[in-house]
Amino acid sequence: MTVLPLPLVPLPADLALADGAPYALSGAAVTGDPDAAAHLRTLVRTRTGLDLGTGDGIALAVDGSGPAESYRLEASGTGIRITGADAAGLFYGVQTLVQLVARDGGAWVVPAVRIVDSPRFAYRGVMLDVARHFHDLDTVRAYIDRAASLKLNVLHLHLSDDQGWRLELRSRPELTAEASATAVGGAPGGYYTQDDYRAVIAYAASRHMTVVPEFDMPGHTHAVGLAYPELAEAPAVEVITEGSTPVAGEPYTGIGVGFSSLRIGDEATDAFVRDVFAELAELTPGPWLHFGGDESLGTTPEDFAQFVASASAAITALGKTPVAWHEAGAAAGLAPGTVGQFWGFVSPTDAATRHARAFAERGGRLILSPADAVYLDMKPTADSPLGLTWANGPTSLVRAYDWEPTRVVDGVDEATILGVEAPLWTETVATLEDIDALAFPRIAAAAEIAWSPASGAERSWASFRSRVGGLGPLWTTLGIRFPALEEVPWT
Ligand code: TNX
């Protein structure tokens, strides 16, 4: 049976259309789990204008059976039942139900279906760079809602870079006092207070998302030098490929990379690294702390290896799992169990493959973020006013969709892959409207690759583009200003 008329993304693991009448939402009521019921009420009201009553009709329950995050959904003319293995599973069942809501003549209905669904990968992430441009709480909450609606469950926050430090730390108040006021192109900066950060974590948790915070080191640290000049190496300006020249002690508002470095092998730097990650660990309930490690072109290879060994050990000693960009795999002393984030291409260079594999060889797993497929900051089309192009851009929706995680890093199999993450770097991204313009609809491709089984009749570009096209009206009512790419038959 074809599922093409149903605009479901990510594609459920198992789905069958049932015979019989659809379920009519007018006058319908909901019963069961209060959190899930509240989400469903809000979403149905937004989508249809209908207020669900309280009582029999749509039954929502958690029953503890089945894999983590899984759910079952049965809809018929007489009622709907969604059963989650856990609260996250039930939440995802609600998201699926909202995607199923359709207009039938003048009525809002849910077609008769039977779905049994669970995720392929445990880690399904998006990253938001709040350093190049600062993004306020409302924007972050809106992005959490967008990601969670596609069953993504990790928000990686890139909290520091050359352009600014974005999280208040009590142990190091100079960071936000001296290095948060500006952003790329002279845009206003900003930072999260500790209460703001807790609010982000709580909001994410209410949508079953875990926050993975990143302080990027030892490169991408020009801003640290504004607060602590003694911790910074002199900028290695000769490696800048784009943008303006950084000046030590002055805010950097360009978009060059690879020029800054912490001073390695210095007790003051070690104390700084210990302080910032210890405080970050205290503030962060999730299991992962990301220490960056990318593009440290202003650091010698020996210093880089020493830094990676000590930072990954320090984070491990805090009871957290370190995460680093794949270059950190070059360091022989990388702490066992460190998770690697691969950002090479779908067909990587030998060095990227070797570095990524090094994490697995030390018992760590991999997050796949192949830049030519899932970097949401690449232009979607050549004429897009926003976005970059360095990763073989523009990156079409079909390119974002047509890749298979187990075929990227040779020798890295399904069990070694923790999951998939779609980063959004924000050199060109200042507002929620900009985020929507770049993230959508490609974020839906990342979500399907992370959630849905690798194969199946409908796990194809032809099916995906049609299902995405059917989501247009829902996205519009949710206020998502997605670009109507020509690759998609929007309905
Ligand atoms: C590379 S990908 C970076 C970032 C830039 C991004 C722009 C990675 C780990 N580092 O510093 O923002 O390209 O696409």
UniProtKB/TrEMBL annotation:
Domain Beta-hexosaminidase bacterial type N-terminal stretches: 8-117
CDD domains per record: GH20_SpHex_like
InterPro entries: Beta_hexosaminidase_sua/sub (IPR025705), GH (IPR017853), Glyco_hydro_20_cat (IPR015883), Hex-like_dom2 (IPR029018), HEX_bac_N (IPR015882)
Lineage top rank: taxon: Bacteria
Catalytic activity as recorded in UniProt: Hydrolysis of terminal non-reducing N-acetyl-D-hexosamine residues in N-acetyl-beta-D-hexosaminides
EC number: 3.2.1.52
Cross-referenced Pfam families: Glyco_hydro_20, Glyco_hydro_20b
Stored Gene3D superfamilies: Chitobiase/beta-hexosaminidase domain 2-like, Glycosidases
Family per record: Belongs to the glycosyl hydrolase 20 family.
Entry protein name: beta-N-acetylhexosaminidase
